[in-house]
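Appendix C reproduces, verbatim, an entry submitted by the partner laboratory led by Prof. M.T., so that reviewers can inspect both the input and the predicted structure.
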Amino acid sequence: MKTDKEQNIIYFDNDDEFYEYVVVPEIVAHKTNHIDKLGYPIYYYDWNFSDMYNDDIRNGVLYMIKDENSQIFKHGAVTYSTITKSVPNLQQYFADL
């Protein structure tokens, strides 16, 4: 990982490095306001982005993954378990010519 504070960009070498930075690898249950037919509350399951990622989003940081075969960049999303979330602040990486 490399940070360019002047341009407000963080560079990652590959998807694994990016994934470790942004994903908190833990499934969390969230109770909804809905009740099922038997009167039990309905839950949904999710995972959280890291505090670092959330801070970066608030500060307008952009991310670039240097791997030209990056699946995260290709899909604009990251997946943990079976839950996929969009990552809107990814930009295409262009190597210095």
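The chain has a mean pLDDT of 94. Additional entries are available on request from the coordinating office.
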